[in-house]
Fold:
Amino acid sequence: MSSDRHFVIVGGGLAAAKLAEALRDNDFDGTVTLIGAEDRLPYERPPLSKDHLSGKQALSEFTVDPATWYRDHHIEVRLGTTVTGLDTSAKTVTLPDGSTVNYDKLALATGSTPRSLPIPGSDAPNVYTLRYIEDSDSLIELFESARRIAIIGAGWIGLEVAAVARAAGVEVTVLEQGDLPLLAVLGPEMAQVFADLHRSHGVDFRFGAQVAEITTRDGIGGTVADGIRLQDGSTIEADAVLVAVGARPNIELAAEAGMAVDGGVLVDEHLATSDPDIVAVGDIAAQQHPLLGRRIRVEHWANALNQPAVAAATMLGKPATYDRLPYFFTDQYDLGMEYTGYTAPGEYARVVVRGDLTAREFVAFWLDADNRVLAGMNVNVWDVTDRIKELILAGEPVDPDRLADTTTPL
Structure:
């Protein structure tokens, strides 16, 4: 390995920081440059809608590495810098001032951007999204003054923010196009659990909601949002609005450079892209998964945490395969949950519940038509993730009745 090689990481989140760590852990002694769009050192994002939002965790506690780590490991960090171009032939990235940075190997960890709604009123100053630490801090301030908020979207971000807002005494209305929260992710059986959970804490759900506009009024300093009007003419009053309708992967850089993309940057089991000198990790990586036998793109913390070790090995020409099953978690009110595995909407045949569904202490299993376990979700039941993984990876049919029987060991 030549020490004059230059590896560049484009991105400033958890995946970028872990890639820098992994390169040094693999004894790469060349130059490493990390180029991040935010003005802050890489930090983890789950606390933004969980422990930081609820006042339990400060930014310093979920910043991945302190400045001294980058200094001690000779990582050049360029913050507040958005890469504007990528030339795969010249092997350079272009910076906003027109200058270029050469690379021998490149890692793309550009993350996602919250989706916006192309409707009137969406640009009002009290219409929020949640992706960055500043967004979380703004919501913390909002919860101290607002009496009622409206949340458009009943996905993970929308529900986690709703839970923190209710704990702060703020009235919450959640508007969702679908019939239940998290319907596309969990299916109707488990989506109902989260609908019941939030309703029991006073959240007002409006399902089948088609938002026509965010209504506004003249306020101090300009126009501010004061509610939502639906397509059917009904209105919801609110002191502020959170738009939580998902995120789009930041794949423009790769697409404009002519790399293979399809709703994400296409990568193989080694996280290599269509360009042999470029890897992609995190939210943007649409990976051909060796165990699932399909291409998946998962916008969750676990990928940003674990993929970089494989990507770093690939950059260094070492054999490595990313074969971890998808994993994510959530905390809402007194409900803690972990989900392992993968099943797309309509692909499973049944859900088997093991435990007490009413008390929200159970494990749910998604089974295919042959009674093979595709995914499992443990709710307020802990230390079972490894058992769930084993059942999925075994690929063998299970007896649904025994699976549901808590006296039968997993």
Summary: The mean pLDDT is 96. The longest strand covers residues 211-219. Residues 180 and 191 are 6 Å apart (CA to CA).
